[in-house]
Amino acid sequence: MSEEDKDSKTEEASERKLSKARAEGDSWTSREAGHTLGFLALFVIVALVLPAMLPGAMVSNALLFDLAPMMQIERVQDLRAVMAGFATGVAKILLPVFGVLLAGALISILMSGPFTVSAKRLQPKASKLNPMQGIRRIYSVSNLIEFLKSLVKLVLIAVLLMIALKQAISAILPGAVLLPEQLPGLIGATAFTGLGWVVAMMLPILAFDIFRKRREWLKKQRMSKKEQRDESKDSDGDPHIRARRQQIRQSRLRQRIRDTVPKATLVVMNPTHYAVALRYERGVDPAPVCVALGMDLMALKIRDLALEHEVTVLESPPLARALHAVCEIDRPIPEDHWAAVAELVGYVLDLRRRQRRRLPEGTQHIT
Protein backbone atom coordinates (compact mmCIF):
# COMPACT_ATOMS: atom_id res chain seq x y z
CA MET A 1 0.00 0.00 0.00
CA SER A 2 1.46 3.38 -1.00
CA GLU A 3 1.87 6.28 1.41
CA GLU A 4 -0.81 8.16 -0.53
CA ASP A 5 -3.27 5.32 0.04
CA LYS A 6 -2.42 5.26 3.75
CA ASP A 7 -2.87 9.02 4.04
CA SER A 8 -6.30 8.82 2.39
CA LYS A 9 -7.59 6.30 4.95
CA THR A 10 -8.65 8.81 7.58
CA GLU A 11 -12.11 7.49 8.51
CA GLU A 12 -12.88 4.93 11.19
CA ALA A 13 -13.83 1.52 9.82
CA SER A 14 -17.51 0.67 9.73
CA GLU A 15 -18.90 -2.32 11.59
CA ARG A 16 -19.59 -3.96 8.25
CA LYS A 17 -15.91 -3.79 7.24
CA LEU A 18 -14.76 -5.04 10.66
CA SER A 19 -17.17 -7.98 10.45
CA LYS A 20 -15.99 -8.78 6.94
CA ALA A 21 -12.34 -8.69 8.08
CA ARG A 22 -13.08 -11.06 10.96
CA ALA A 23 -14.94 -13.42 8.63
CA GLU A 24 -11.83 -13.54 6.42
CA GLY A 25 -9.66 -14.39 9.43
CA ASP A 26 -8.12 -10.92 9.72
CA SER A 27 -8.26 -9.92 13.37
CA TRP A 28 -5.97 -8.66 16.11
CA THR A 29 -4.13 -11.18 18.28
CA SER A 30 -1.93 -10.83 21.34
CA ARG A 31 0.84 -13.36 21.93
CA GLU A 32 1.31 -12.02 25.42
CA ALA A 33 -2.00 -13.58 26.51
CA GLY A 34 -0.62 -17.10 26.12
CA HIS A 35 2.63 -16.25 27.88
CA THR A 36 0.94 -14.45 30.77
CA LEU A 37 -1.72 -17.09 31.32
CA GLY A 38 0.97 -19.77 31.22
CA PHE A 39 2.87 -18.16 34.08
CA LEU A 40 -0.39 -17.42 35.90
CA ALA A 41 -1.41 -21.09 35.63
CA LEU A 42 1.97 -22.16 37.07
CA PHE A 43 1.53 -19.62 39.88
CA VAL A 44 -1.93 -21.02 40.72
CA ILE A 45 -0.54 -24.56 40.68
CA VAL A 46 2.31 -23.64 43.03
CA ALA A 47 0.17 -21.46 45.29
CA LEU A 48 -3.03 -23.54 45.54
CA VAL A 49 -2.98 -26.92 43.83
CA LEU A 50 0.30 -28.44 45.03
CA PRO A 51 -0.01 -27.34 48.70
CA ALA A 52 -3.49 -28.90 48.79
CA MET A 53 -2.77 -32.14 46.92
CA LEU A 54 0.95 -32.89 47.32
CA PRO A 55 1.12 -33.75 51.07
CA GLY A 56 -1.62 -36.37 50.93
CA ALA A 57 -0.26 -37.93 47.75
CA MET A 58 3.26 -38.06 49.19
CA VAL A 59 2.02 -39.73 52.38
CA SER A 60 0.08 -42.39 50.45
CA ASN A 61 3.00 -43.11 48.12
CA ALA A 62 5.48 -43.17 51.05
CA LEU A 63 3.27 -45.71 52.77
CA LEU A 64 3.25 -47.75 49.59
CA PHE A 65 7.06 -47.83 49.48
CA ASP A 66 7.28 -48.64 53.21
CA LEU A 67 5.04 -51.66 52.71
CA ALA A 68 6.78 -52.79 49.51
CA PRO A 69 9.10 -55.38 51.21
CA MET A 70 6.11 -57.11 52.81
CA MET A 71 4.01 -57.30 49.66
CA GLN A 72 3.35 -60.65 48.07
CA ILE A 73 3.14 -60.28 44.31
CA GLU A 74 2.47 -63.68 42.83
CA ARG A 75 -0.21 -62.90 40.29
CA VAL A 76 -0.92 -60.21 37.74
CA GLN A 77 -3.89 -59.09 39.84
CA ASP A 78 -1.53 -58.36 42.76
CA LEU A 79 0.68 -56.14 40.62
CA ARG A 80 -2.38 -54.44 39.17
CA ALA A 81 -3.66 -53.61 42.66
CA VAL A 82 -0.29 -52.13 43.69
CA MET A 83 -0.01 -50.02 40.51
CA ALA A 84 -3.59 -48.86 40.86
CA GLY A 85 -2.84 -47.42 44.27
CA PHE A 86 0.29 -45.72 42.98
CA ALA A 87 -1.52 -44.35 39.92
CA THR A 88 -4.32 -42.97 42.11
CA GLY A 89 -1.79 -41.02 44.17
CA VAL A 90 -0.14 -39.59 41.07
CA ALA A 91 -3.50 -38.78 39.46
CA LYS A 92 -4.54 -36.74 42.52
CA ILE A 93 -1.67 -34.41 41.70
CA LEU A 94 -1.65 -34.44 37.90
CA LEU A 95 -5.38 -34.06 37.21
CA PRO A 96 -5.75 -30.71 39.05
CA VAL A 97 -2.49 -29.54 37.47
CA PHE A 98 -3.71 -30.40 33.97
CA GLY A 99 -7.08 -28.84 34.77
CA VAL A 100 -5.46 -25.51 35.71
CA LEU A 101 -3.23 -25.61 32.60
CA LEU A 102 -6.25 -26.34 30.37
CA ALA A 103 -8.24 -23.49 31.93
CA GLY A 104 -5.30 -21.15 31.40
CA ALA A 105 -5.03 -22.21 27.76
CA LEU A 106 -8.74 -21.61 27.13
CA ILE A 107 -8.69 -18.21 28.84
CA SER A 108 -5.59 -17.22 26.88
CA ILE A 109 -7.42 -18.05 23.62
CA LEU A 110 -10.31 -15.79 24.64
CA MET A 111 -7.94 -12.97 25.65
CA SER A 112 -5.71 -13.27 22.58
CA GLY A 113 -8.37 -11.68 20.38
CA PRO A 114 -11.65 -12.53 18.62
CA PHE A 115 -11.81 -16.23 17.77
CA THR A 116 -12.29 -16.63 14.01
CA VAL A 117 -12.32 -19.61 11.69
CA SER A 118 -11.82 -18.76 8.03
CA ALA A 119 -11.31 -21.11 5.11
CA LYS A 120 -9.76 -18.22 3.20
CA ARG A 121 -6.70 -18.24 5.49
CA LEU A 122 -6.16 -21.92 4.66
CA GLN A 123 -6.16 -21.42 0.91
CA PRO A 124 -2.67 -21.68 -0.62
CA LYS A 125 -1.20 -18.47 -1.97
CA ALA A 126 1.63 -18.19 -4.47
CA SER A 127 2.98 -15.17 -2.60
CA LYS A 128 3.66 -17.34 0.46
CA LEU A 129 5.97 -19.51 -1.64
CA ASN A 130 8.07 -16.54 -2.66
CA PRO A 131 11.29 -16.69 -0.55
CA MET A 132 11.94 -12.95 -0.88
CA GLN A 133 8.55 -12.05 0.53
CA GLY A 134 9.11 -14.58 3.31
CA ILE A 135 12.41 -12.92 4.18
CA ARG A 136 10.71 -9.51 4.18
CA ARG A 137 8.06 -10.79 6.59
CA ILE A 138 10.69 -12.32 8.88
CA TYR A 139 12.78 -9.13 8.98
CA SER A 140 9.90 -6.69 9.01
CA VAL A 141 9.77 -3.83 11.51
CA SER A 142 6.88 -5.40 13.44
CA ASN A 143 8.72 -8.72 13.81
CA LEU A 144 11.86 -6.89 14.89
CA ILE A 145 9.87 -5.05 17.56
CA GLU A 146 8.35 -8.35 18.72
CA PHE A 147 11.81 -9.92 18.92
CA LEU A 148 13.24 -7.06 20.97
CA LYS A 149 10.20 -7.07 23.24
CA SER A 150 10.52 -10.83 23.81
CA LEU A 151 14.25 -10.47 24.49
CA VAL A 152 13.70 -7.73 27.08
CA LYS A 153 10.89 -9.71 28.67
CA LEU A 154 13.05 -12.84 28.85
CA VAL A 155 15.87 -10.89 30.53
CA LEU A 156 13.44 -9.43 33.09
CA ILE A 157 11.96 -12.86 33.85
CA ALA A 158 15.44 -14.32 34.30
CA VAL A 159 16.43 -11.46 36.63
CA LEU A 160 13.31 -11.88 38.78
CA LEU A 161 13.77 -15.64 39.07
CA MET A 162 17.45 -15.22 39.92
CA ILE A 163 16.58 -12.74 42.68
CA ALA A 164 14.03 -15.20 44.13
CA LEU A 165 16.58 -18.02 43.93
CA LYS A 166 19.27 -15.86 45.54
CA GLN A 167 16.94 -15.05 48.44
CA ALA A 168 16.24 -18.77 48.91
CA ILE A 169 19.95 -19.65 48.91
CA SER A 170 20.77 -16.84 51.33
CA ALA A 171 18.10 -18.20 53.69
CA ILE A 172 19.89 -21.54 54.07
CA LEU A 173 23.49 -20.31 53.97
CA PRO A 174 25.83 -20.15 55.68
CA GLY A 175 25.63 -23.01 58.12
CA ALA A 176 21.85 -23.40 58.23
CA VAL A 177 20.48 -26.85 58.86
CA LEU A 178 17.91 -27.91 56.30
CA LEU A 179 16.11 -31.15 56.87
CA PRO A 180 15.07 -33.18 53.81
CA GLU A 181 11.36 -32.79 54.62
CA GLN A 182 11.83 -29.00 54.57
CA LEU A 183 13.16 -28.98 51.01
CA PRO A 184 9.75 -29.14 49.22
CA GLY A 185 8.52 -26.20 51.28
CA LEU A 186 11.61 -24.15 50.40
CA ILE A 187 11.26 -24.98 46.72
CA GLY A 188 7.56 -24.13 46.80
CA ALA A 189 8.14 -20.79 48.56
CA THR A 190 10.87 -19.86 46.07
CA ALA A 191 8.68 -20.78 43.09
CA PHE A 192 5.76 -18.88 44.65
CA THR A 193 7.85 -15.72 45.06
CA GLY A 194 9.48 -15.90 41.62
CA LEU A 195 6.30 -16.69 39.71
CA GLY A 196 4.38 -14.02 41.64
CA TRP A 197 6.89 -11.38 40.55
CA VAL A 198 6.78 -12.60 36.95
CA VAL A 199 2.96 -12.53 36.83
CA ALA A 200 2.92 -9.05 38.38
CA MET A 201 5.30 -7.91 35.64
CA MET A 202 3.42 -9.66 32.83
CA LEU A 203 -0.11 -8.41 33.58
CA PRO A 204 0.61 -4.73 32.70
CA ILE A 205 2.50 -5.89 29.61
CA LEU A 206 -0.53 -7.98 28.57
CA ALA A 207 -2.95 -5.07 29.06
CA PHE A 208 -0.74 -2.73 27.04
CA ASP A 209 -0.22 -5.33 24.29
CA ILE A 210 -3.97 -5.96 23.90
CA PHE A 211 -4.60 -2.20 23.72
CA ARG A 212 -1.78 -1.72 21.18
CA LYS A 213 -2.71 -4.68 18.96
CA ARG A 214 -6.38 -3.71 18.81
CA ARG A 215 -5.48 -0.07 18.11
CA GLU A 216 -3.11 -1.06 15.29
CA TRP A 217 -5.73 -3.40 13.80
CA LEU A 218 -8.40 -0.70 13.86
CA LYS A 219 -5.93 1.71 12.26
CA LYS A 220 -5.18 -0.87 9.57
CA GLN A 221 -8.91 -1.23 8.87
CA ARG A 222 -9.48 2.52 8.40
CA MET A 223 -11.34 3.58 5.28
CA SER A 224 -11.05 6.40 2.81
CA LYS A 225 -14.04 8.61 2.06
CA LYS A 226 -14.38 6.89 -1.31
CA GLU A 227 -14.54 3.46 0.38
CA GLN A 228 -17.24 4.76 2.68
CA ARG A 229 -19.27 6.02 -0.28
CA ASP A 230 -18.79 2.71 -2.12
CA GLU A 231 -19.88 0.75 0.95
CA SER A 232 -22.91 2.97 1.34
CA LYS A 233 -23.82 2.28 -2.28
CA ASP A 234 -23.42 -1.45 -1.76
CA SER A 235 -25.53 -1.54 1.38
CA ASP A 236 -28.16 1.09 0.61
CA GLY A 237 -27.96 1.30 -3.16
CA ASP A 238 -26.81 4.11 -5.41
CA PRO A 239 -28.15 7.52 -4.19
CA HIS A 240 -29.40 8.31 -7.70
CA ILE A 241 -31.24 5.01 -7.86
CA ARG A 242 -32.71 5.60 -4.39
CA ALA A 243 -33.86 9.05 -5.45
CA ARG A 244 -35.40 7.62 -8.60
CA ARG A 245 -37.21 4.95 -6.58
CA GLN A 246 -38.49 7.62 -4.23
CA GLN A 247 -39.77 9.61 -7.20
CA ILE A 248 -41.55 6.55 -8.55
CA ARG A 249 -43.15 5.87 -5.16
CA GLN A 250 -44.27 9.48 -4.85
CA SER A 251 -45.67 9.40 -8.38
CA ARG A 252 -47.61 6.22 -7.69
CA LEU A 253 -48.88 7.66 -4.42
CA ARG A 254 -50.09 10.84 -6.14
CA GLN A 255 -51.76 8.76 -8.84
CA ARG A 256 -53.48 6.65 -6.18
CA ILE A 257 -54.70 9.75 -4.40
CA ARG A 258 -56.09 11.10 -7.70
CA ASP A 259 -57.94 7.80 -8.20
CA THR A 260 -59.26 7.20 -4.68
CA VAL A 261 -59.98 10.62 -3.15
CA PRO A 262 -62.76 11.53 -5.65
CA LYS A 263 -64.57 8.30 -4.63
CA ALA A 264 -64.20 8.95 -0.88
CA THR A 265 -67.15 9.68 1.38
CA LEU A 266 -65.37 12.33 3.45
CA VAL A 267 -61.93 13.68 4.36
CA VAL A 268 -60.99 14.36 7.97
CA MET A 269 -58.29 17.02 8.41
CA ASN A 270 -56.07 18.73 10.91
CA PRO A 271 -56.09 22.03 9.04
CA THR A 272 -52.82 21.69 7.16
CA HIS A 273 -50.81 18.83 8.68
CA TYR A 274 -52.89 15.63 8.43
CA ALA A 275 -55.59 14.40 6.09
CA VAL A 276 -57.39 11.04 6.04
CA ALA A 277 -59.81 10.14 3.24
CA LEU A 278 -62.52 7.63 4.23
CA ARG A 279 -64.98 5.62 2.19
CA TYR A 280 -68.19 4.13 3.50
CA GLU A 281 -70.86 2.41 1.46
CA ARG A 282 -73.81 1.12 3.43
CA GLY A 283 -74.29 -2.61 2.90
CA VAL A 284 -70.81 -2.97 1.37
CA ASP A 285 -68.31 -1.78 3.97
CA PRO A 286 -68.61 -3.18 7.51
CA ALA A 287 -66.84 -0.03 8.73
CA PRO A 288 -65.37 3.12 7.15
CA VAL A 289 -62.29 2.26 5.07
CA CYS A 290 -59.18 4.45 4.77
CA VAL A 291 -58.50 5.06 1.06
CA ALA A 292 -55.80 7.74 1.36
CA LEU A 293 -53.82 9.61 3.98
CA GLY A 294 -51.01 12.13 3.98
CA MET A 295 -49.07 14.81 5.81
CA ASP A 296 -48.26 18.44 5.04
CA LEU A 297 -48.15 18.95 1.23
CA MET A 298 -49.79 15.59 0.61
CA ALA A 299 -52.54 16.50 3.06
CA LEU A 300 -53.19 19.74 1.19
CA LYS A 301 -53.27 17.80 -2.08
CA ILE A 302 -55.90 15.43 -0.65
CA ARG A 303 -57.96 18.42 0.55
CA ASP A 304 -57.78 20.18 -2.83
CA LEU A 305 -58.76 17.02 -4.72
CA ALA A 306 -61.66 16.42 -2.33
CA LEU A 307 -62.98 19.98 -2.71
CA GLU A 308 -62.50 19.78 -6.49
CA HIS A 309 -64.68 16.63 -6.67
CA GLU A 310 -67.19 17.85 -4.10
CA VAL A 311 -66.15 15.40 -1.39
CA THR A 312 -67.02 16.65 2.09
CA VAL A 313 -63.96 17.88 4.02
CA LEU A 314 -64.33 18.14 7.80
CA GLU A 315 -61.81 19.72 10.13
CA SER A 316 -61.38 17.71 13.35
CA PRO A 317 -57.74 18.00 14.55
CA PRO A 318 -57.75 15.39 17.35
CA LEU A 319 -59.56 12.79 15.25
CA ALA A 320 -57.40 13.49 12.18
CA ARG A 321 -54.19 12.99 14.16
CA ALA A 322 -55.52 9.82 15.77
CA LEU A 323 -56.68 8.31 12.47
CA HIS A 324 -53.43 9.19 10.68
CA ALA A 325 -51.45 7.41 13.40
CA VAL A 326 -53.36 4.10 13.24
CA CYS A 327 -55.07 3.81 9.83
CA GLU A 328 -53.78 1.63 7.00
CA ILE A 329 -54.60 2.10 3.31
CA ASP A 330 -57.52 -0.08 2.09
CA ARG A 331 -58.17 -1.31 5.64
CA PRO A 332 -61.16 -0.49 7.89
CA ILE A 333 -60.45 2.02 10.62
CA PRO A 334 -59.77 0.60 14.11
CA GLU A 335 -62.84 -0.17 16.17
CA ASP A 336 -61.84 2.41 18.80
CA HIS A 337 -62.70 5.20 16.35
CA TRP A 338 -65.96 3.82 14.95
CA ALA A 339 -68.21 5.95 17.18
CA ALA A 340 -66.43 9.25 16.40
CA VAL A 341 -66.27 8.56 12.65
CA ALA A 342 -69.89 7.30 12.58
CA GLU A 343 -71.11 10.75 13.65
CA LEU A 344 -69.20 12.38 10.78
CA VAL A 345 -70.42 9.78 8.26
CA GLY A 346 -73.99 10.32 9.47
CA TYR A 347 -73.54 14.06 8.97
CA VAL A 348 -72.27 13.54 5.40
CA LEU A 349 -75.10 11.14 4.49
CA ASP A 350 -77.72 13.50 5.90
CA LEU A 351 -76.05 16.32 3.99
CA ARG A 352 -76.47 14.34 0.76
CA ARG A 353 -80.16 13.83 1.61
CA ARG A 354 -80.38 17.58 2.22
CA GLN A 355 -81.17 17.05 5.88
CA ARG A 356 -79.83 19.55 8.39
CA ARG A 357 -77.71 18.01 11.13
CA ARG A 358 -75.37 19.54 13.66
CA LEU A 359 -71.69 18.64 13.52
CA PRO A 360 -70.02 17.17 16.60
CA GLU A 361 -68.42 19.75 18.86
CA GLY A 362 -64.94 20.80 17.71
CA THR A 363 -65.61 19.88 14.05
CA GLN A 364 -65.89 22.36 11.15
CA HIS A 365 -67.07 21.91 7.57
CA ILE A 366 -64.45 23.15 5.09
CA THR A 367 -65.83 24.45 1.83
Can you lay out the helices and strands and say which pair or pack?
Layout: H1 3-8, H2 15-23, H3 31-66, H4 76-111, H5 131-138, H6 141-172, H7 183-220, H8 225-236, H9 239-260, E1 266-270, E2 274-279, E3 289-295, H10 297-308, E4 312-315, H11 317-326, E5 331-332, H12 338-352, E6 364-366
Parallel strand pairs: 1-4
Antiparallel strand pairs: 1-2, 2-3, 3-5, 4-6
Helix pairs in contact: 3-4, 3-7, 6-7
Provide structural commentary.
- The protein is α+β, with helices and mostly antiparallel strands and 367 residues long.
- The protein has 2 domains: 3-231, no CATH class; 254-366, secretion proteins EscU (name from scop, 3-Layer(aba) Sandwich), CATH 3.40.1690.10.
- Helices cover 64% and strands 7% of the residues.
- It has 12 helices and 6 strands.
- A 6-stranded mixed sheet has the order 5-3-2-1-4-6, sandwiched between helices.
- α3 packs antiparallel against α4 (76-111).
- It is elongated.
List its traits.
367 residues, name from scop, alpha+beta, 7% strand, six-stranded mixed beta sheet
